[in-house]
Amino acid sequence: MRNNLKKEKSILDGIDSKLIEQLYTNARTPVTELARAVGMTAPSVNERLKRLEESGVISGYRVEVNPVVLGYSLMAIVRMRQLPGKLKALEALIQSIPEFVECDKVTGDDCYIARLYLKDISQLDPILDQVSELADTNTAIVKSTPVKRRLLI
């Protein structure tokens, strides 16, 4: 019975969902504006946000940086299959190369799938040369992103 109550508490209602959507669009939205958007008072919205943070639904507020404005005009997806006994070394190498901005450890033929930003194509081979000492790679240049990271509610 207690587990069922706990599960029910974690379900978002329409107001929670609306608040999260607003913050996902702009994490700096003032509480007064959030309150207007959901038809509540600012103190009530503050309490909801506090509850969402304490329950772990909201785990942080982030800044989104545009890589193109910083000069990173290319994005690549690199699939990696580590060479025998090189898994930990490969993971450490990926973490040490700042152009790798995201990496997932996955099941299947590959062990890692990573997102890499480059200022130009000439940066790709030196990075892949480092990785190829520890893994077989398969790389694809991203042409566009029809579905950007989106809210899961």
CATH fold annotation of the largest domain: Alpha-Beta Plaits
Mean pLDDT: 92
Quantity of strands, as a count: 4
Q: What is the straight-line distance between the termini?
A: 25 Å
* Count of the separate structural domains: 2
Number of helices: 6
CATH architecture of the largest domain: 2-Layer Sandwich
Oligomeric composition of the shown chains: single chain
Largest sheet: 4 strands, antiparallel
Instruction: Summarize the amount of helix as a percent range.
Output: 25-40%
Uncertain spans: 1-8
Note the beta-strand portion: 15-25%
**Which CATH first-tier class of the largest domain would you pick?**
Alpha Beta
**Rg from alpha-carbon coordinates:** 21 Å
Identify the strand order in the major beta sheet: 2-3-1-4
What's the overall geometry?
elongated
N-to-C series of helices and strands: HHHHEHEEHE
CATH superfamily of the largest domain: Lrp/AsnC effector binding domain/regulation of amino acid metabolism (RAM) domain
Q: Give the structural class.
A: alpha+beta
Description:
It comes from Marinomonas spartinae. This is HTH-type transcriptional regulator LrpC. The protein is an alpha+beta fold and 153 residues long. The protein folds into 2 domains: 2-54, Arc Repressor Mutant, subunit A; 74-141, 2-Layer Sandwich (Alpha-Beta Plaits). 40% of the residues lie in helices and 19% in strands. The chain has helices at 2-10, 14-25, 31-38, 42-54, 87-96, 124-132, and strands at 74-82, 100-105, 112-118, 135-141. The protein has a 4-stranded antiparallel sheet, covered by helices on one side. The longest helix has 13 residues, at 42-54. The protein is elongated and about 60 Å long. The chain starts with a helix and ends in a 12-residue tail after the last strand.
